Amino acid sequence: MSIVHTPRFFQFRDWPETQLHRFMANLIDTRHKLDDKTVLYMPFEGGEKNILDPTERAALVEQLAQDKEYVNRMEACVIHWTRQVKDLLSSKGHGAISENAGPLEEIEYWKNRCADLAGVRKQLESPMVLFIIDMLAHAKSDYVTTFKKQASELKMGSKQAETNYRFVSVLKESCHHLAEATPSEIPTMMPKILKTLRMIWVTSEFYNTVDLITGFLQKLSNEIIKRCCESINIDKVFQGYVISSRKTLNTCIDCCTSWEEVYDKTASIHHKFSGLQWNLDRDAVLSQVNGFIQRCKDLLEVCEAQEVFARFEDGYQKPMPQFGGRRGLDIVRSLKSVETLFDHSMKILAVHKRSILDVRSTTWHEDFSKFRKVMKDLEIMIQNLLLSIFETVTTVEQGIEILDVFMHFENHESVKRTIEKKTVDVFTLVKTEINAVSQELSIKGKALTHQQPKFAGASHRVRALKRRVEKIMTIIDRAFFLPSVGSIAEIRASYRKSLPWV
User: How far apart are CA 128 and CA 2, in angstroms?
Assistant: First the structure.
């Protein structure tokens, strides 16, 4: 457009040349912004501005300064240059890249900004730009002063960018290691990175503002969250890999918690020993990390729910417990219906699983709230099923077996309360058995059958009663999973008091 087509347009007068220059300036600016570069449009009307002879150049400047149309066209170009320089200077290091960027993107930004500002400075010192500015100054244009002011600020901005890049590049190697680290390795890296950043804050001439330091800390938080996300396999979480997923999620939580601790410790040391106050916004730095920790805890709840309601361990399901008696099949069907409802709720939750770890996404909160509501309904179903089953329990052994099957629901408060109540009922059956044996032993001279000898028969009867109560106590001793409800100590005391011979 600049070399082939534009010179041909100048041969015609139907299209105002001012509009042509404005179009070319916008075209070139838009094209080079795709590469994050700022390029000034150089108006080409015949190549006269390449004259190097001072006498001829001065004459041409004076001649063109009298051409009002030419002056207007060049003023339009200078206005565009001024706007480009102003926009370039107004962009900041922490705001010119995405919110999810890491520290390496910040370092790369300052590198590119140095090159961009240096490139624009070189363009401003080109013969064509100098010629146009001299001509407009000779024509007493009002836009020259503003342009020169922006050019002067550009030189200062270029110096700042060079200084900032020189300082932040000190962190480049550490940030590369951070970008390749696992969550378990990150806590040992952060103290060194924060100490280096604190050194930059204290000694840098320009990279010492609250906004820039806070922005870099936010990018460190972004990188930590990114590394944790890389280690979490969401698909495996929803496929029932409970044990491995829980381990990974806890590691990520520990990693983020350690980052918060290192930040607070560094802030405390800085505040104690440095004259420069640590007046950074902690929430701005760590809010995303806290949100990510909560998402990990939500996924831990999903893992726990799969373990409790769907019998998942690490990608496979444990076998369904078997129940005897006339209601055994009904109990199994009830448990399967609970699993069916749970599976349906998991499929609904999995629709938005890709947004779970995106702490800036708000859709997860609503979806997870619905999932929790379904879990509450399933708790009530399990609670009612447990109450129904215990209506047919008549022995201690039956009660212990049922409690063993339902004990993995104890993390849910409503079911836990029911389990505790039913444990008390089982202990009541134990006391009833002990009292019955004690009462049986208190009967003196109980008649024996004709086949039993007098003394040996009486001894056999006592031994049978002893084994009866010993079996019950053995079952209780092996039931380590029972909640501590305070009755077991009372039962043992009653056992020793009523049957001292054991």
Answer: 15
The strand ranges marked E within 200-292 are none
Residue carrying the six token digits 């361990």:
313
365 in Cβ contact with 377 (< 8 Å): no
What pTM does this model have? Answer: 0.78
432 C-beta neighbours (distance < 10 Å), count? 11
**What tens digit of pLDDT does each residue of 37-65 get?**
788 877 766 555 555 677 778 888 888 88
Q: Hunting for tokens 């290691």 — which residue is that?
A: 177
Judge contact between 111 and 55, C-beta under 8 A.
no
What distance in Å separates the CA atoms of residue 46 and residue 63, rounded to the nearest whole number?
A: 15
- Alpha-carbon gap, residue 99 to 361, rounded angstroms: 13
> Contact, 113 vs 93, CB < 8 A?
yes
> Interior CA angle at 196 toward 193 and 200, to 5°?
135
- Only one residue has tokens 């390496």, namely 104
Cα distance between residue 257 and residue 286, in whole Å: 10
In sequence order, which residues have a C-beta less than 8 Å from that of residue 81 and are 6 or more positions away? 40, 41, 124, 129, 147
**What are the pLDDT digits (tens) for 118-169?**
889 898 888 888 888 998 999 999 899 999 999 999 999 999 999 999 999 9
Beta bridge partners of 314: 241
CB 338 within 8 A of CB 374: no
Task: Give Cα 26 to chain centroid, integer Å.
Answer: 40
Long-range pairs for 367-375: beta carbons < 8 A, 24 or more residues apart: 368/298, 370/345, 371/302, 371/345, 372/301, 374/341, 374/342, 374/345, 375/305, 375/309, 375/345, 375/412
Calpha distance 481→400 (Å, rounded): 10
